[in-house]
Structure formats: structure tokens, C-alpha cells
## 1
Amino acid sequence: MKSRYEIILSGVGGQGLVVGGTILGEAATMFENLNSTLTTSYGVETRGTFTKSDVIISKDEIFFPEVVEEDFVLALAQVSYDKYAKLINENCILVYDCNSIDPVDHLKARQYGFPITDAAREIGNIATANIISLGLIVKMTGVVSVESVTNVLKEQFSKKPKIYEMNLNAFNKGLEMAEQL
Amino acid sequence: MTKKQDIRFIQGNVAMVEGAIAAGARFYAGYPITPSSEVAEASSIRLPQEDGLYVQMEDEIASIAAIIGASASGKKSYTATSGPGFSLMQENLGVAIMAEVPCVIINVQRSGPSTGLATKPAQGDFLQSRWGTHGDHGIIVLSPSTVQDCFDLMIDAFNYAEKYRTPVIFLADEIVGHIREKVVIREVDENEIINRAQPDCEPEEYKPFNHTENGVAPLAPFGDKYVVRLSGSTHDERGFPCSRPDNADKFIRHYTDKIEKNYKDIVKVRKYNLEDVDITLVAFGGSTRSALEAMNMARKEGKKVGVLQLVTLWPFPEDEVIDALINSKAVIVPEMNLGQMIREVKRLNDFNTVVQGVNRIDSMAITPKEILDKIAEVENESSRIFG
């Protein structure tokens, strides 16, 4: 892994992107002795408008906490896809939800569409799209280990067995989907 | 015995609450406002677990009134707000200064004026935190730049409040309040905690404002055996209103002197690579993070750049800033306002040092690149002076 890895999780308010970023940050800081920051940008509306989370994971201390050069962008809504697709460079991986986003061709970045919304419905709750996405990110980047994320899920949800199981299924689903690349 | 440590990945706002509880705070009254709302939320959960009390008030005027009352009753108290709420608190902030009641007021700065951009950062309350309430007074203002600061520095905030019987402003910003990063929530040794002095005289002899040469009078809690008169009106040692000019002179000087004369105890700065510098970046709060990143980038280019972080903003760290002005060819002040802290830096600049700002007021954090560009610009402009 690079010494500093910069991830953008983007979509619209209510999709659980902050939760997703927090799980990544917890995995990095609490289980891998790495540094991590999570900053978010959102509007005054609670739901439905553009939002993004910047996750930085680094071996070194992190001062400026905003993403400067994206290594990975997740887009869960058309508005966020449109915002980032043409900006990012060839070293960046762009993952988008092909159930809700019409992609454009000829990007500099390597882009991969996954049926994230369909997979979340299959899991039984559309709100698990963020956790499925975590599985994709972890498998495709190796920025943190599968075990560290599983540990965080266990700590957060183990008191609610059904929710824990659903989130674990969602995470594993994301890992599987990335495996099939 | 090793103390317990708890490593967590949480927001600055949440760490502030843990810091307040570690410092002994057990009362919060407030009115939630972005970007400080997580302070209220976390307080509402955590204080009842610690035998404390959380009250949601009808507005910010009532919020600060409630924490003054709770503190006068003996509980360490705090509130949290942002720009519009901080403006509403100014009158009662003066009451806390005049009555010398310890308390901590958290202001997580957002873009203003007025409602402004509620979810976006700014550092536009730097001067308001010093001069927002009317009349001559001293004030202690601390500013965190990391989530760890939000915990550790909050303990200092309460200690200063108790030691000097004064409100302390904890001047955060949206960047620091909302960032999540690693923090060590440590078990705090009781020797680290300062509690206000208590009287040991006979009740009839107690005077709540009978200050000593080097310290403030003990503050008994309301409802105890001592009669405590606290007032926003100019008062004498007993707390009775008093309009004698010599009394007014004595007490108004006291409000400033008790802070300013303890400069060395109160002023905290952090120095990064200042042993050998051409250019010093003087920064506070969230902008410190941009400055440190810029410093590292500049050092990689072989440029002698250092950072002076002002952790205490008021009293203004004049000695340390003067050192920076003397030891640097140029001082650059990045701040998310149109130039509030730079006024203080320029006021101290009797040394013909180049002083320039990097300012942003568009709700976006100052980027390290912008500071690097300013460094290059200052170098070019000053090449004649620098030689």
C-alpha cells in the first residue's frame, strides 16, 4: 500500500457514507495502528442533496484532512458521479452503482460499475449499500484488511445480532462482487 | 499502576465532551446549533451516565445564564454553540466575567455573519471572542487543532476557569469540530484537575470578591453556609453594588490583570521547526493543519519554513509572536477570515519583518498549496530584502 491513501465516498445525504467512512477509519486506527481522518461535506438539508466524505488513511501523521489526489472514488448517486468522473486521473479507481448511475465513456480513471442497489435489496435492506461498498473498497484496494473491518462491525453491531448479520452479509457481498472482476 | 487508555475514532465535538467530563464538568445547558450540535448530543448521553445533568434550553441567552447559575451552585458547567448563538451569549458572558463565575463556552465557528453557511467552517470569531462583550475585561481563549486537543485542551479550559474564576472560550471551528480521527481518551489523574478554592473562614467573615494579591477569592457554592452575592453591577468585596470610583477602578483593572498577569501560566503555543527559519507560518485552529502540511511540503523543497501554532489565542501570545517576527525574514498568517489575527501580529511588528496573510472566507479550508504559493510569492517579492 502507498503510505497515504485518499478515498472519496460520495452520494446524497442519507446513504450512510459517513458511517461507511467511520468504519474504514476505525479499522485503520483501532485495529491496524495506522492514522486516519474523516471529514465530511454536506448541505443544510438532511437528505437528498450532494454529500461526500473524505477518508485518508496513512502511515504518517495526517495534517491537512481533505483529499487532494484521489486514489479511490465511490459514487452512489448520479450527482456525485457527474461531479467526479471527469476530474479524476488515471491512477484513480472509480466505483459506481450501475443501478442508479448512467456512466460516461472515455474517462481517465479506471471505472467499474457494480449493481450495488440490487445487491442491497437482495440483502434485505437498501440501507446496506454503504456496507456493500466497503467490501468493494477493501477488496479492490487492500487499504485495510477484511479482518479489521469485520472487527469493527462486530464491535458496533454485535449487541444487535440481526443487524450485525445483515451488515456482515452486506460486507461479504461486496467482497464477492469485487472478486468477480 | 498504569492508567486506562481508550483509543477511539471520533469527532472533535465528541472528544470535547469527554474532555469536559474528565475535567469534572457535570452540567451542560445549551441550544443545539450546527456545527456544534454533536457536543449537545454527546453531552445528553454522557452526562447522565456520570451523575451529571443535561438541559436543553429555549435559546442561547438562557443557556449561558443556566451554566452561570449551575456553576455558582458548585457544578463545573459548559455550553456549546456557533456564531449566531455566540453573539446571543455576549451579554451574559459579561455577567460571568463581572461575577467571576467559572464556566466554559465552546464556540465551533462557522461561516458568518448571521446564519451564514451553517455547515461550513470559518475563523471569523477571533476578535469577537476577545471583545464581543462590552466593557474592559480579560478573557482566556483556547483553540484546538486536533481531536486530541479537543480532549486534552478542554481539561486546561476548565482548570483555567476554576483557577482564575473566569469564563473560558473554547474557540474551535467546523474543521476541528467535525473531523474524525484517532484520539486517546485517557484516565486523568486527579492531580491534573484544578477545583476552585473554597472558603474556610467563619460564614459572617466571607467576602466572595475579597481577592488576594496573587489570586482570586474562594467561591462558595449557593445554598451552603456562606452567603454568596453575585451581580453584574459593579460591586465591592462583599458583592454589594458600589459606585465609588476607586472601587470601580480596582475591580475593572482586576478583571484584566488576573488574566494578563498570569500570561506565562495561560499562554500555550507549539513550535515546529522554528530553530532555523526564513519564513514562519503563524496559525491557529483548523488552519494549523494546512500550515503544517505546507511546512512539510516546503521543507521538501529545501525551504526553511516553520510553524508557530497559537493554542492560547487570548491573552495573545505576544512574546512568542515577537520572537517569530525577530527570527524570521517573513511571517505568513493563514486564517479563515479577512485578516483578524494578522492585525495582532502587525501590531507587534517593530522589526520590519514582512507580514502577509493567506485568507479564505468562501467556506473552504485553506489548502497547503495556497500557503506554498504565498511562500513563493513572498520569496520573490522580498528577494531584494532577503538578498
## 2
Amino acid sequence: MAIDTDTARRVAHLARIRVAEDDLPALATELSSVLAFMEQLSEVDTDGVEPMTAVSPMPLKRRDDVITDGDRQPDILANAPDAREGFMAVPKVVE
Amino acid sequence: MALNELTIAQARDLLAKGEVTSADLTEACLTAIESATTLNAVTTVTADKAREMAKAADARISAGDATAMTGIPLGIKDLFAVEDVPTQAASNILGGFKPRYESTVTRNLWASGAVMLGKLNMDEFAMGSSNESSAYGPAISPWREDGSDAAITPGGSSGGSAAAVAADLCLAATGTDTGGSIRQPAAFTGTVGLKPTYGRCSRWGIVAFASSLDQAGPMTKTVRDAAIMLGAMAGHDPMDSTSADLPVPDFEAALTGDIRGKKIGIPREYRVEGMSASVDTLWAEGTAKLRDAGAEVVDISLPHTKHALPTYYIIAPAEASSNLSRYDGVKYGHRATLSAGEGINDMYEKTRAEGFGPEVQRRVMLGAYVLSAGYYDAYYKKAQRVRALIKQDFEAVFADGVDAILAPATPSPAWQLGAMKSADPVEMYLQDVFTVTLNLAGLPGISVPAGLSSKGLPLGLQLIGRPFEEADLLNTAYALEQATGFSAKADKWWT
């Protein structure tokens, strides 16, 4: 399936990556070529095949629902680009 | 032989006899790293930390408390979180990030007494086959084509690890493999690269690319070293719910070199169009050598092989788009400068446009597309179904009694840096044709150096094993290593 400029714009927005309007046609062409390659899968008969959702057949481990870690506010904020008064700061979200 | 040229096994034996110290080994590696900046393999040197760790290792050896890895200087791929050491996954979006925690694999290695030399170059977020997507610029292979001084790619994504091991900047290195990122660079540099079974090594603290495919493994000079190092890296970890709660066997003890009666499968679908003649010849020679060593060679079929690449290039970007959504300019790394009036969505979009390189952007967008409403079933779910069929192909072959599968590691030798610049993305993706199948099926695989191309560049053969039977796989690889007797090294032009 070919991707048009509008779809490319939508995909860039979904991915939260800013793409300049002038670059959208090239992006659309590039994504289309990769998707054309993926179209090969349509020739595989997958009727009745369960999608593979786990690599190993083992059931996931369970553990008691208890707190095992915490009180690490300085560690968590240490790498934040803008940390103030114990919080990560972001541009105003609510008017 | 210079101390940095030793294998892990040789160094271990000399350390045990008291003939060298870890401090000596570590200094030899640090000196080699200093003289090899041209290769751009090492992105951060942790010299002080290395010297401290070497001192502690020497004390431990004197006290009679050593493991096989105690005192061994290692390089660590930039994908592994190492406490207080820059960890950037070779991406600008993680610029300045210093983790306040340690990945389980590196924690295991330090607990065994290994020494940290520094962080190694790679493709950005492990997305690439040539190291050229790195924010640090590409690592360069120590190998050159005969009669040429053009820079050659060490492969990717663990290209810095491969270059560092091949150039003797460290005794061994860690790598990660999502679609071939350990095995392909190992093949390109005449080194050994082992991708263990999915779940053998904990993924905790390794920057995530595609969580159902990622697996850490050793990159070493010999098969024996891979066996030793895997033993120190592996083990169950409650912090990774997909880590296997299985005992870690003594992999080195399995190396008898006796493969008589073993059944080796040769997959007919791996004879792909465009495979280089030297790779084809090498594969035939490797097959003959395993037969001479007493193995039974059988023709096998893995019918869904040709669909593995499109399956991989749907599943991996889909998982990447989820995993990389955490890079938002809030918690760590880069944040774009905003103009007056710009809000939080502008911050996300500008930060990610500035922080991610072109290949990462392409895959994140592709992933967002195949997961989006209306396309999820057609692409992502379809790929998951084909993935199940690919896994079943292998299960059928193993159920027929095949112990290991022999295939090339790559369709061609390494190429010159920049040679793929004008290629479209799909052309680069075709490089992974022999390696992605294992990641999709979760199987262990190892690349063993087996010969040189017509232009004098290394080529590797790949062995694929049954899940969690790395010990048996390593033994077959050991027999192949003995039979090929590969001993070529790159000329040291960079010092």
C-alpha cells in the first residue's frame, strides 16, 4: 500500500516526531517502499495460525504484590532536563 | 604476545599462575585503546574505574577467590546501563544520561570480578548493520581490503564491540542481538559472537529496542572465551519476567570437540540470490569439515525463511515505537528549546526530531503505522502469525533429530563505509537475511570466523542450536573452529 503525504503527516504525529512539511513527500516515498517489501507477507496462508505473543513457552512468573523498591526520588530526578522542587517540570499543560 | 592480545582463557591461566596481574592486563588494554582512537570503537574510557576494579580483582585472586572472569578487562556496548557512566545507546536523545543503576548482565560480570574498560560504539538504539547510524560517528573495522586503505565497516549494531575485540583493545566485549547485531559484526571482524537463547541473559538495564527479540551475549576471540563469558553473564533475574529460571551449566566443560554422530542440518532456503561466491564456497567447506569431524550432514527445509525479513521489519519497529516512546524530553536526556507559546506536544515533537537520527525516526514511524488503527491486523497481527510459522519450521527440524543448523552468518563480507549511503533502507535490511530468523524463533546462534573473502576480509559461518542448549551449540562451534583453524588478524595500521 502506498502512503500519501497526508498519511505520512499523520504517522509522524502519531510518533510525536516533527517532520517539516517539505520533507513529507520524501518520507511518504520511503515508508511506501518499506511497506511494499512487507506486502510479501500477504502470500503466506496464516488461516488458523495463532499469533505468536511470547517467545518462550514458559508462563510468566508471579510474585507477591508488595512494594520492593522506592524512596529514590533523587535518583529518579537526577537525569531530568528540568527538575524543580522534587518534580519534573514541563510546559504548561492545562490553561 | 602483548597482554591485550590474550584470550580470556589464556589470561585466566596466567592470572592463576601469578605470572600476570589484572593491573598489567588492564594497563595493556588502556594503552591499546589510547592508540586506537582512529577506530572510534570506544566512546567512553573508564580508566580510573578500570584500575580500581583491576586492583580489587588482583586482591581476590591472591585470596584464592577467583572465578574464570576475575581480572579480565572488558568493553561494554553503550546499550548497557552502567552506574554513573554515560549510557547513550549511541543516540543524541540520551545525551548526558548517566544511569543511577546497573544492568543485570554487567552486574553479573562485575560480581564475577571482570574489569570495565569503557563503553563501546554501536548503531543508534542498535538499529543498523554498519555502525553508521551512531551519534558518535561510525566505528571503523581494523580490517582493510587487500591493497586498499579505505575504511571498512565493522558491521552493526555491535560494531564497536566487534572492532574493539578484533583490534585487541579488550579481551572480550558485551554485545546485544535483536536481528543479528552480535553475529554479523563478529563475522565481519573475524571474531566469535554468540546470541544466546531468548531468556538466557536478563534484559534488565539494557536500553530496549524490540523486547521480544533483544538478547545480550558475548563477543570474543575464541569459542572457549564465549563459553566462559556467557557463564558469567547468564542467569535468572526476577527483574526480567522473561528471563529463564534455569540453571546455568558449565559451558566450557562442554567443549570436547567431539561431534561424532551429531546431526547437522543445511537449510536449502538459505541459498539466497545475491549471495557472494566466497560465502557460498565457505559454507560448502564448513559443511565438509563438520562431516569429516564425524557429524551426519542432512539437507533440511525451513520453508518460511523468505518471509522472515518482512516479519522482522514489522515486529521490530512496532516494539521499538512503543519502547522509544519513553524518550520525551521529560525524564532524561535531551530536551528541545521551545519558543514562546509552544506547548507540551511541541516539546515532544521537537525533542524527538532533534534527538533521534534518521534510521531511528524511520523505524519509530513505521512501527507507529503498523500498530495504528486499521493497519494493526493487516501488518502487526499478520507478522505475529508468520512468526509462529517460522518458529514451527525450526521446531519441526529439531523434532526430526537435527542438533544444529549450519548457515552463513552474512550474505557478503563487510563493505566500505559509505557504500550503502545511497541504498534504500530495504537493501540494508537484506543484510540480516540469515540472522533474523533466530531472533524471531528465540533460538541461540553463534558466528565463528571461517575464512577470508577474495579481498582478504573475514567471513563467518553461523551455527543455530536448540533452545537453551548453548552448551551443545558451543561444542559444535568449537569443533568447527578447530576444523577451520582461522587465525588471521588485521595488520595494526591504526597505531
